[in-house]
Amino acid sequence: MRGKVAPTCRNLTTSRRIATATLDAPGLASDVPPPSISHRKDAIKHAKPFSAFLTDSFDRQHDYLRISITERCNLRCLYCMPEEGVPLSPPAHLLTTPEIFYLASLFVSQGVTKIRLTGGEPTVRHDIVPLMQSIGTLRPKGLHELALTTNGISLHRKLDSMVEAGLTGVNLSLDTLDPFQFQIMTRRNGFDAVMRSIDRILEMKTLGADIKLKVNCVVMRGMNEREIIPFVEMGRDKDIEVRFIEYMPFGGNKWTQGKMISFQEMLDIIRSKYPELRSVRGHRNDTSKTYEVPGFVGKVGFITSMTNDFCGTCNRLRITGDGNLKVCLHGNAEVSLRDLLRKDNNGDPIDQAAFERIKQIEMDRREGRLSDETILGWGQREQELLQVIGAAVKRKAEKHADMGDLEKLENRPMILIGG
Ligand code: SAM
Ligand code: SF4
Ligand code: SF4
């Protein structure tokens, strides 16, 4: 008769975290009652140190994960992808919904508190709402924020069910308030649909929905710098934060320094009309520097990756649509989590049925019905994944290269990274 199998993991904290990740997948989780105040106090008292796997060699703790859930998009923005498009991965190379959910729960078990779904355009993934619903179930496990970066074209159709699924924030990309200019910058139509999405979010907010809305606007010289003031003025009576992003170089986007408008230049443009523009204290891990015009409801932010990097407080990791962990947006180091994940499924994509089968094996092993020697199971696989993740995070550079070197760096086009 086989006895219970002792944990194979090298450290017990890790082993406990692993148990949380696998067994609490939907279908296996017991109902978790809301924690009482004394429970919460107890939890704070006994809080574990932040996962070593997600802490890099500069002591940065990565509690924010961006997952790209598709490589496809319904727009073709000039700054994001080459005109001829990008070669897409074969469907079998892309992460399935159970795989995305599995990785999300693994990262949450290690201390990730915020997940952002991005792409490509995440709303074109047909099962984005069920995916959000399942990731939403990670809230009792420590997920605080579930956010989306989207171009807003089809968001208005799915927004209500997303909010029900636990969506807490939307970063909506819009680079112009002029429908003709929209067509030039995105090489497609759709301005009215984007505005419909913005209006619906604002309407839901007035009805009590707790959704943070930020509008992301990439500023390119000769293209849309004259839109800076109208965007700032959107915030006069709308509760929106408009964030101006310095144009960054990525594979195939024909970046030149001359086309980039710096943070300082943007400030000068705004101050020429609103000299009273003033800076507002932000959160430690904010990527943007926040400002306000006194009397305006909205805020103005700047993402200054090129002239004033914020790498020192970086807390972000990315998973690409084809399942690579990318520890830095401006670094081309990637490791495949997908290949490791699929080892127990002969290298094939893990669909729901395969996911249930593997879970059952793991349950049997935990119950002592199978031994470690005969079946590898997910406990072992998770340990391997965490080792790979931990090693990649430890290799993360302190900061990105200088502008000149970044321009030459071979990197994916932004559409295949997920911003
Ligand atoms: N399709 C979604 C969207 O547009 O919001 C999500 C993916 S998109 C790649 C994520 C963000 O990256 C967008 O806010 C977009 O403006 C930004 N982005 C893309 N290329 C960029 C570039 N070259 N420089 C700065 N930001 C860029
Ligand atoms: Fe698509 Fe977003 Fe890239 Fe525009 S920025 S092409 S919407 S992925
Ligand atoms: Fe983080 Fe890399 Fe971006 Fe710097 S460049 S903020 S290290 S992701």
TrEMBL record:
This enzyme's EC code(s): 4.1.99.22
Domain Radical SAM core stretches = 57-276
Gene Ontology biological-process annotations: Mo-molybdopterin cofactor biosynthetic process
One molecular function GO term is: metal ion binding
Q: Does the keyword DNA-binding belong to this entry? A: no
- UniProt superkingdom: Eukaryota
> What keywords are annotated for this sequence in UniProt?
4Fe-4S, GTP-binding, Iron, Iron-sulfur, Lyase, Metal-binding, Mitochondrion, Molybdenum cofactor biosynthesis, Nucleotide-binding, S-adenosyl-L-methionine
Q: Which InterPro entries match?
A: Aldolase_TIM, Elp3/MiaA/NifB-like_rSAM, MoaA, MoaA-like, MoaA_NifB_PqqE_Fe-S-bd_CS, MoaA_twitch, MoCo_biosynth_MoaA/MoaC, rSAM
- Provide the catalytic activity annotation: GTP + AH2 + S-adenosyl-L-methionine = (8S)-3',8-cyclo-7,8-dihydroguanosine 5'-triphosphate + 5'-deoxyadenosine + L-methionine + A + H(+)
Name its pathway.
Cofactor biosynthesis; molybdopterin biosynthesis
Named cofactor requirement(s) = [4Fe-4S] cluster
Gene3D superfamilies per the record?
Answer: Aldolase class I
What this protein is called in its record is GTP 3',8-cyclase
- Record organism: Polyplosphaeria fusca
